[in-house]
Design a protein that fits this description.
By secondary structure, this protein is an alpha+beta fold. The protein has twelve helices and 14 strands. It has three domains: 47 residues, Uridine Diphospho-n-acetylenolpyruvylglucosamine Reductase, domain 2, CATH 3.30.43; 111 residues, Uridine Diphospho-n-acetylenolpyruvylglucosamine Reductase, domain 3 (2-Layer Sandwich), CATH 3.30.465; 110 residues, 2-Layer Sandwich (Enolase-like, domain 1).
Length: 289
Amino acid sequence: MYPASFDYHAPTSVDDALRLLGTLGDDAKLLAGGHSLIPLLKLRFARPAHLIDLRRIPGLAGIRADDDQIVIGALTTHRTLERSTLLRGVLPILPEAAERIGDPLVRNAGTIGGSLAHADPGADLPAVMLALGAELRTASPRGGRTIAADDFFIGLLTSALEPDELLTEIRVRRPGPATGGAYAKRPHPASRFALVGAAVVVTLGAGETVSSARVALTGVGERAIRVPAAEGALVGRAPDAATIERAATEAAAGVEPRADLQGDAEYKRHLTRVITQRAIARAVERARG
């Protein structure tokens, strides 16, 4: 199927893109990598009168260190995340998640900013952002702002971005000593979206007990979520097999998955427990070095 007709715009600066957004309003859609938007256009679920292609704007892609933070441009592709030496050394959870997204075609074109702004309930990176405690920076005619990942994902395909706002970069604090992260998922056999995905970051303290933990899930609701009960089951305890099992069980108890062609709610709770257990165990192993 072909999209409905639209006017195409290719701004060459963030200011130009913001002017177009301000002028065109709700009649415009932003295009980053295109792997979320183009299928919607072809099915005519989305029928914008204007398409604003961000790919010619310099400075919106790339990965760099900035003091105690890692900065990722919103137009950075999944493939770049996957292959980044910097990320593999500092934040291996991100390449681990990126290499599980779709197929090579999707990873070569899809972008981190596009994925986060689209807020698909089965996408991998939203859960990773929650586990990392990332900050998302935006630009708009009213000025930029910083949105915590915990406040960014609001509902089904809905983020905290305002209609005239553009996601420009993602910032993640460098992890401290004895910190490890991991991402695990059960992919949909066709789309490779997560039936269940779990992103976990843990820090070990004195006596090798867990001093902090962030556990986030994707694929089991209308948006990616953190699971405080699973985090609480880890903090203050030695991360042995029994503790990890207890935390994974809490994660499964904290979701209300919907039955679909891939399985009923009971099966998805079982998957949640298994996948979360794997992610926690791998995060702990990395924290131990």
